[in-house]
Amino acid sequence: MCPFFDDRRQVTPGLHRFCFRNLRTALAQRACWCLLLSGCFAVPVFGQSLGSSGTLRGVVLDPSGAVFSGAEVQLQNSVSGFQRTTTTDDSGRFEFSNVPFNPYRLSISSEGFQSVQREVTIRTSVPIDLHVTLQIETASNEVTVQAVGSGLVESTPVAHTDLDSSLIDKMPIGNASIGMSEAVTNATPGVAADANGFFHPLGDHAEAAVSLDNQPINDQNSKLFSNQLSLDAIQSMEVISGVPPAEYGDKTSLVIDAVTKSGLGETSPHGSFSAQYGTFDTSSVDFSLGAGGAKWGNFLTVNGTNSHRFLDSPEFEPLHDRGNGQGIFDRIDFQPNTTDSFHLNLSVGRSWFQIPNTYPQSAAGQDQRQQIRTMNIAPGWTHLFNSTTLLTSNLFVRLDHVQFFPSPNPFSDVPATVSQDRRLAALGARTDLSYSKGIHDARFGVQLQHHLLTENFDLGLTDPSFNPVCLDAQGNPVTDASPTEPGQCAGAGFKPNPDLLPGLVPYDLTRGGSRFHFHRTGDIKELSFYGQDAMKIRDLTLNLGLRADFYRGLSRANQLEPRIGVSYLVAPTMTVLRLSYGRFLETPYNENLLLSSATGAGGLAGNVLGALESVPLQAGRRNQFNAGFQQGLGRLVVVTADYFWKYTRNAYDFDVLFDTPLTFPIEWRKSKIDGLGVRVNLTDLHGFSAYSVMGHTRSRFFGPENGGLIFNSPLDTGVFRIDHDQAFQQSTHFQYQLPKHGPWVALTWRYDSGQVAGAVPDLQSALALTGDQQAAIGFHCGSTYATRSDPITTCDLPYPEWGATRLVIPAPGTENDDTNPPRIAPRHLFDLGLGFDNILRTDRYQLNFRLTVLNLTDKVALYNFLSTFSGTHFVAPRTVQAQLRLVF
Q: Can you give the pTM of this predicted structure?
């Protein structure tokens, strides 16, 4: 049954209005119905999608033209680490399905015959067919190499990073529940690490989208919002950091095109079981199993984790930080014939965790907790019309249910007790037609998404000094509960508080008030059309694309978005030159969007929460330019560099509520972001390989701010550096594998020069901090360092005899929000991995051991400090993890 409608008279009312009131052209109406019809007819019991990956197949012949069975066929990309091997069947055929878009080296060999090597570029979901003839080996010429070039550089205008499961498996992943985020942060240039799986992609905050087997996922994917898919389920990821093609929309600062593992063609079951234990009583188990045949396949992963340091803590020592998570992913494939294939992705996830405390919060008995449940169902169908044309159709339903629980004693939570129960459901369909022939590699499609939002929120003030009605003669808050309105202050010998938020007084529990309650539902609809063509004219590649977005949420927006890119391959020097431009419609964050858009003047009964201004968040409009190059150095090294410049009107971020993990979307008037990303790859050299990624970003935002919950203090319209801004970061990974599956060792070095931390711009701000806060930043006056119980309240020493070890406070008179803001201090982090594969030297079953040490030097460092956008979080202390894995 179609989830959208049974017949035309029974269309969901919201969807009917979207298709027939907001889109009034006959063409748009027909396209909307075609999308739904094609999606509904594409709901099989099983499924496989080739929309975000390709298929390479062929026939191997002997010199007489007869089919050649038993030949070994290998497909390899030395940069991403991708490698697969198969043999030709009785009809001489071979096939590699679910292959990520990339250039590859294809090698075909058999004893007594000359081996053949070819370079094949896969950039289309239309299957590529090859015919290869093996020649008899001669003494004078043992190996024949046909059409082989460098195999390293890619002549595509789109800057991206390729990650295969073979590379990901050796990465030092500290937390399995955010493994995808950590892999992207470690291996992608221009991505700055933040706490709890957040990252800042190319100067933005969380403006990242995931395409999972052709399913668009544009909602937040950190562990505070949703449950990520286990890395065990990921075959490969292409992380697009340049101007993405027209098929991608919404959050486009970084696009993660992920392809999951499949059991299709696996005639013998294979899988693994692993158990891991480490520091902070962290334990995890993972199980995966793939099985199938020529026409069907199933790949299943089950994982669970438990830790006493589940989230990044506001103290170096984790306090009240237990948590656990579980996830199941199942991919089912069915390919009844050579023209049709079906797939079905099913996944569920759950996480439960305590909210980490500071020392004062633990002393007060704070006990806040959160639970997240995630569900995803995504069937799909592909139909191959002929050797040039492929139809792909996907449906998807995704749900995130987030519950935040306050402490049992409401007055243990200061300055307010807060609870939340919200749901974010995404329903959608996507259909596109791929065409590949001659110089053309084109795709045309339509996509519909419908987000259903439900938000419940409660708040009650528990600190009488937070919103006092009256002040004493010295300007201190009066905590007496008797005055409930400013007119009562003078009679009691006090003066009215000029900064009073009168709408909050009825919800001040210390004055006999009751809790504020918010409940609202809403829906967001998006319709997109796109067309793109990558034309390859000898050494010139030209990407031409156009996307049309129609956004109908709390606000409305339409936009045509050209996406243009050009690259040129200078073959003799192995150089690729790139230039691209794109226009984008950036859609507001859906998490807590209803409350955040209703807090200002005229909202919530005349601005109960005291926000300065709040109207429904508007869609952002962005222009982006990219220019770069890729250079191959021999057959071992490839260097990629890309400069980006992004100008956005209505730029997004989050405001954090107090020191909870509850965040509310906001928008700034505009932003100007530019920077440079560089990646250097060293392919395998006698077991040694390495890569290094570097980034520099200037992230300048302009007020005023719109949205958020409360405390929107007046901001001028001048420019400031936001906490996404970082002058330099780099991640370098070295790896050495002894021959014949011997032991391996990997070392990762991460350097961050420090993101903006605007809470401490000068000495007076530092002196006003509590002892716990001063101790967190390592504040000192001369040789005297602040402690939790003994803060520094005065310091008469000249600069630089005072300062902080974990925060860079500008010298007196030099602080500037744009050119010299306060920053987190630079940090070097080292991670070490050691592994022994196939310890018992067996054939059918293999036992592997792995030891990982994160933060090898036990560096005490901060991600952020008192950030209005993300709070305070420490980098994890030294963490040791030991893992045993049985592979079968």
A: 0.88
